[in-house]
Amino acid sequence: MYEPVVETFDMAINPYRFQDRSDAGQQLAHYLVRYAYCPDIVVLALPRGGVPVAFEVACTLHAPLDLLLVRKLGVPGHQELAMGAVASGGICVLNEEVIADFGIPKWLLNSVVDREWQELQRRERTYAVQRSTLVLQGKTIILVDDGLATGMTMQAACRVVRQQDPARVIVAVPVVSYDSCALLAEDVDEFIWIIAPEPLYAIGLWYEDFTQTTDAEVRALLAQMNSTMPQLSPD
C-alpha cells in the first residue's frame, strides 16, 4: 500500500501551484533523475494533458516518449467524476460504486462508453504519424499524467501496460488524491508524486495555467521528441 503524505492546504494562505504543465513536468523529473540515461526506460503519456508533463520528464531522462490512449468515463452532469475508463487494447474499467450511487442505467453507461471509444479511436488516427511504436516487454515503464483525482484512467492505463509484460510499472504525476493512491496500490511497482493535497477539489486548481492541451500541441511535442531523442529499437 502506498501512503501519500497528505497535506492540508489553505489555498488563501498557502496557494501552492504549478505554473503550468511544463513546469510540473520539470519539477516531477527531479524525482526521477535516478532513471536518467537508463536504456530500458520508456515514458508513456496519457493524452492530452499528460503529454506536456511527460515531454519534460522524457527530455530530462533522455528516454523515448510515446502515448497511452485512455479516456475517462465521466458521470453525465458531473464530468469531473469518473465512473470508469476505457483504454487501447479493449480495456474497460468501471467504478461500480459510483455507477450505483448515481443510479446510472445500463443504456446511459453504454452510451458514454461508445462515445469515449469513438474519441479514443479518433485520437489514435490523429496522432498516428507522430508516434513511434515502442516495445514495452521487459522495459521499465513510467506512466505520466498531469494529475490523478479518482485514478480510474491511470488504472486502465496500468492494465494495458501489464498486458505487454514490462519489467516494472511506475506512475509519476505532479498531484494526486489519497483515493487514487489507494486504488493503484496493487497495479504499480512505484508511485511518485509531488503533492497530495487534502482536500484536492480538482486537479486544475493546482495549476496557475490549466488551459486544455490541444491535438496540435500533442503532435508538435511528439514531433519535437522524435527529432531530438533516440528511439528504442523494436527488437
What would you say this structure looks like, in words?
- The protein has 235 residues and is an alpha/beta fold.
- The protein has a domain at 6-68 and 132-228: Rossmann fold, CATH 3.40.50.
- Helix content is 35%, strand content 23%.
- It has helices at 21-30, 50-61, 96-101, 106-127, 152-162, 178-184, 215-228, and strands at 6-8, 41-45, 65-67, 70-75, 78-87, 91-94, 140-144, 168-175, 190-198.
- The strands form two sheets. It has a six-stranded parallel β-sheet, sandwiched between helices.
Walk me through the topology.
Elements: E1 6-8, H1 21-30, E2 41-45, H2 50-61, E3 65-67, E4 70-75, E5 78-87, E6 91-94, H3 96-101, H4 106-127, E7 140-144, H5 152-162, E8 168-175, H6 178-184, E9 190-198, H7 215-228
Identify the notable features of this structure and list them briefly.
235 residues, alpha/beta, Rossmann fold, 6-stranded parallel beta sheet, 3-stranded antiparallel beta sheet, 7 helices, 23% strand
How would you summarize what this structure contains?
This protein is an alpha/beta fold. The protein has a domain at 6-68 and 132-228: 3-Layer(aba) Sandwich (Rossmann fold), CATH 3.40.50.2020.
Enumerate how many helices there are, as a single number: 7
The percent range for helix content is 25-40%
**Largest sheet descriptor:** 6 strands, parallel
Structural class: alpha/beta
State the shape. Answer: globular
Q: Tell me the total number of β-strands.
A: 9
Write down the Rg: 17 Å
Contiguous low-pLDDT stretches (5 residues minimum) are 1-14, 231-235
Mean pLDDT: 85
CATH class bucket of one domain: Alpha Beta
Distance between the termini: 35 Å
Across the major sheet, the strand order is 1-9-8-7-2-3
Which architecture name of one domain does CATH use? 3-Layer(aba) Sandwich
> Which H/E pattern describes the elements?
EHEHEEEEHHEHEHEH
